[in-house]
Task: structure prediction
Amino acid sequence: MRRPLVAGNWKMNGSRESIQALVAGLEQALSDVEAQVVVCPPAVYLDQVAAGLKSSRIALGAQTLSEYDAGAYTGEVSASMLGDFGCRYVLVGHSERRALFSESDAQVAAKFAAAKAAGLVPVLCVGESLDEREAGQTLAVIGAQVGAVQEVLGVDAFVNAVIAYEPVWAIGTGMTATPEQAQQVHAAIRAQVAEKNTAAAEQLPLLYGGSVNAANASALFAMADIDGGLVGGASLKVDEFTAICRAAQG
Ligand code: 13P
Result:
């Protein structure tokens, strides 16, 4: 049985003050939620959020990391630094990183490897564009993104890891994939992982992301291979995010 998992990706939003209020609100609202909840604040606020979450079961995640361990990489943050600040999870290869910051499949795989080497749980984000979906390439695109990580990390790539399927056309647009569309992709991802490692595939949490909200979460999470969500905009609102986390526990 896979434990439901809901991660909030705050992206580049918030201030010291607004984040203090958000953390306090979440701590209270989520105190009895059984799903594993993760919040991913901007890196400069990790310490503040870690301090605010000290007595809570909410886990801390980062939004990206460097593929390098240490040294002359101005502006970068390493996996071990994230661990030092209490992170357990880190998003890798979010579509905004791939599109706006030119992260390639190879770089994403290197970041994924760096996260695992430091004992963090990488959350590999994959997803197709609208053009790719309309051209019938969805499963091929996702297969290549997952395959790039398998190629570098081998059969145990997805042991102690998470994959989030986030169709690019559904992110921040209010256009959610239907539960059936998402399930089809999730099933294909699990099958691809199972080809290399059946046990890892069984245990692998597969999250859906892209305009998840309190109204559509239950139907998505009811699908056999959807184990939770990766939530953007709605994760900045205590009531909305709490409702999504409750929907994940069934
Ligand atoms: P939205 O929930 O705002 O569509 O964002 C999804 C996302 O990109 C989470 O990583």
Observations:
- Residues 9, 94, 166, 171-172, 209-212, 230-234 surround 1,3-dihydroxyacetonephosphate (CB under 6 Å).
- The CA atoms of residues 8 and 155 lie 29 Å apart.
- The first helix runs from residue 16 to 29.
